[in-house]
Amino acid sequence: MENEDAIPIKIGVMDSGMGGLSVLRTLLSLPYRAHYVYYGDLGNAPYGERSTEEVLALTKNVCSELLSQKVNAILLACNTATSAAASELRAELPVPVFGMEPAIKPALSAHPNERIALLATSVTHREEKLRNLKLSLSAEERIVHLNCDGLATLVDLGRFKEAEILLRKILRPVQSEGIRGLVLGCTHYVFLKRLLLSVYPEAILHDGNEGTTKHLIRSLQLERFPGTPGFELFFSGREKGSDAYLLGKRLLHENE
């Protein structure tokens, strides 16, 4: 890492595991001299099958770790953590907190008069944040909820053949009904785009990564810092140089 005094802005990026790397990958492709500290909480994954209270506590712990690294802002690059913790963290933390939002609005616009499907974890599906978003869009009747518990864990472990088997089961109902618009409501699922399209070639995929990165760049005025970004990776419960770090680096450099 370059000298800390020479880094104009340091941004913490957190996720329950590998999923947030899909957002970090987008940020690293942009010409801004920010330094990103990524923390994947693999030691406590998956978040999506825990209680809201557990997710809130775990997310707070990760944010404390990131604050100890003297970050200037934190991105919850995890839909589950955003749903459970973003509001409280924004009220408590001394730095700006950004989160994820499923790309439901653009998906509804892209598929007028059609139903769309939301692929997400149990926590994301049940939280008030999603209910409020659907109410604001008057979209309750147009969204089919697909529970994808277990899928993020397979991404964290790099078990993509098993992920394909699970995806076939998850997607069967929407395929049979001809619902083509699929919203990826978990950052892990961005790494499954090619698999999703191999299972369901007629699908049109929507994810919130681009919207989130644009919002973060605009809010933090990153255009003030032209240059090459840098990053470092941390995974809880994993040794440096372990398979988790190797998988993380591979995912960062994969094309969608």
From TrEMBL:
<keyword id="KW-0413">Isomerase</keyword>
<dbReference type="InterPro" id="IPR001920">
    <property type="entry name" value="Asp/Glu_race"/>
</dbReference>
<feature type="active site" description="Proton donor/acceptor">
    <location>
        <position position="78"/>
    </location>
</feature>
<comment type="pathway">
    <text>Cell wall biogenesis; peptidoglycan biosynthesis.</text>
</comment>
<feature type="binding site">
    <location>
        <begin position="79"/>
        <end position="80"/>
    </location>
    <ligand>
        <name>substrate</name>
    </ligand>
</feature>
<comment type="similarity">
    <text>Belongs to the aspartate/glutamate racemases family.</text>
</comment>
<dbReference type="Pfam" id="PF01177">
    <property type="entry name" value="Asp_Glu_race"/>
</dbReference>
<keyword id="KW-0133">Cell shape</keyword>
<keyword id="KW-0573">Peptidoglycan synthesis</keyword>
<dbReference type="GO" id="GO:0008360">
    <property type="term" value="P:regulation of cell shape"/>
</dbReference>
<dbReference type="GO" id="GO:0071555">
    <property type="term" value="P:cell wall organization"/>
</dbReference>
<dbReference type="InterPro" id="IPR015942">
    <property type="entry name" value="Asp/Glu/hydantoin_racemase"/>
</dbReference>
<feature type="binding site">
    <location>
        <begin position="15"/>
        <end position="16"/>
    </location>
    <ligand>
        <name>substrate</name>
    </ligand>
</feature>
<feature type="binding site">
    <location>
        <begin position="47"/>
        <end position="48"/>
    </location>
    <ligand>
        <name>substrate</name>
    </ligand>
</feature>
<dbReference type="InterPro" id="IPR004391">
    <property type="entry name" value="Glu_race"/>
</dbReference>
<protein>
    <recommendedName>
        <fullName>Glutamate racemase</fullName>
        <ecNumber>5.1.1.3</ecNumber>
    </recommendedName>
</protein>
<dbReference type="GO" id="GO:0009252">
    <property type="term" value="P:peptidoglycan biosynthetic process"/>
</dbReference>
<keyword id="KW-0961">Cell wall biogenesis/degradation</keyword>
<feature type="binding site">
    <location>
        <begin position="187"/>
        <end position="188"/>
    </location>
    <ligand>
        <name>substrate</name>
    </ligand>
</feature>
<feature type="active site" description="Proton donor/acceptor">
    <location>
        <position position="186"/>
    </location>
</feature>
<dbReference type="GO" id="GO:0008881">
    <property type="term" value="F:glutamate racemase activity"/>
</dbReference>
<comment type="function">
    <text>Provides the (R)-glutamate required for cell wall biosynthesis.</text>
</comment>
